[in-house]
Amino acid sequence: MKILIIEDEEAVGKALKQFLEFKGNEVAHTIDIKGSIAQIDSFDPKVILLDMKLGKEDGMEILKYTKERNKQARVVIMTGMNSELLEQQALKMGAFAYVHKPINIAQINEMIEKM
After folding, report:
1. In this structure, what DSSP letter does residue 7 have?
2. Is there a contact between 95 and 63 (Cβ–Cβ < 8 Å)?
3. Model's pTM, two decimal places?
4. CA 86/CA 99 separation, integer angstroms
5. CATH code for the domain of 58
6. Residue 72: what are its φ and ψ, rounded to 5°?
7. Can you give the residue range of the structural domain that contains 102?
């Protein structure tokens, strides 16, 4: 499965990428909105693991862009922010799931395998 990881914490993104590739997925990783848009358009991911906060950039912009371009992509929001309002907003905008950090890689993998 084609998976795009949008995560500005290099260590987290790299660990997810290595694990998901080991599981047989085709995985790309980017750290910002500009790179994300390019990857969404060229890579055509089926699953996007999206960090809500990318430095000073807002992951909600990527969620909106994804849903306009590729309605079939499943977007999983990953965040350290504990906001019920933000979670509801993301799900209403089309996010498939909302996962709190620290990330449990096994949980992410299980979620992807069910898609």
Report:
1. -
2. yes
3. 0.94
4. 12
5. 3.40.50.2300
6. -80, -20
7. 2-113
To the nearest 10°, the Cα dihedral for 88, 54, 78, 2? 110
pLDDT of residue 19: 96
Amino acid letter, residue 17: K
As for how many domains the chain has, the answer is 1
Cis peptide before 102 (omega within 30 of 0): yes
DSSP track, 32-93: SHHHHHHHHHHH--SEEEEESEETTEEHHHHHHHHHHH-TT-EEEEEES---HHHHHHHHHT
**Ramachandran class of 27: left when φ > 0, alpha when ψ lies in -120 to 50, beta otherwise:** beta
Please state the rounded mean pLDDT for residues 83-87.
Answer: 87
pLDDT in tens, 6-52: 999 999 999 999 999 999 999 999 999 999 999 999 999 999 999 99
**What is the structure's pLDDT at 92?**
95
- Confidence class for position 115, pLDDT limits 50, 70, 90: confident
